[in-house]
Amino acid sequence: MDHQQAARKRPTIREVAAAAGVSRGTVSRVINGGHWVSPEALAAVNEAIRATGYAANQHARSLVTGRSNSVAFLLTEPQHLLFEDPNFSILLRGAAEALAKREMPLLLMVAGTPAERARITAYVTAGHVDGVLLISSHQGNPMVSALLRAGVPTIACGIPLGFEGKVGYVAADDAGGARIMTRHLLELGRTRVATITGPLDTSGGTLRLEGYRAELGDRFDETLVAHGDYTRDSGNRAMRELLDRHPDLDAVFVASDLMASGALVALRENGRRVPDDVAVGGFDDNGLAANVHPALTTMRQPFERISAEMVRLLLEVIEGQDPAAITVPTSLVLRDSA
Questions:
Q1: Measured between alpha carbons, how far is 239 from 197 in angstroms, rounded to an integer?
Q2: pTM for the complete prediction?
């Protein structure tokens, strides 16, 4: 072996033990959590690891601990939405950053079709990941039942309808945020406030509609409600539907910024000025809202906090704690559309 080969050779546990003046068993215990190791030995081993440049072989460690030391980011939506909806990329980036601090890789998985769900369920339940961050799960999603049956630690983004109390989650205050936005539109003096909902098999879709309805109270009119699916096209279609039904509407609360961008196009094509004729409010503040015309007044979800909290709760479940649930507040961001 020449000098360069020797220089490239990975340091071994034997070399770390020799440098620290302890047994290989002590080094192994330090690497796997530091249990039953004296403070002096722990300090010596950590210094030896630093000095030798030793890096744990994660595959070998997984054989000992029974863990993969990785987490799945599981999006249960069609693949094109990963690129179309900014919410998902923001959550993905935040989760990856939170896990990087713990030196854990994040595996992106998209399961929008039955075949993809079956394939990914088999992979995840076989133990290839330690846990799952479940994104955009719809009510009746068979993957949630499969993950629970297999005992795979799982934390959802948003309340997992039908699995409350069984699966932990981190959610924005959807109902409260919808009330704040609806109240803002009413306080502008608007009297015909419509809404475009998200999918009603998701907690965000149902709770934002509930908040809108609660704030209107006796003024609620079912015919001022149109349904979307969080896509831009659905926002455009729903806005046209509302204008056909109520040409006199003067405000609309749209349950996502992506749908609101489609609604703005429909309003413009129908000769309505925003906000002069129709005030528009969205929900998310994922970067899109500030870049449409006119700039969108919206409810901000704290995406970075949501993803960081999801990672924290998931790691707790992986360590054996009961699943917890957190709801984080939203905040009104005023721009030009309302």
A1: 11
A2: 0.79
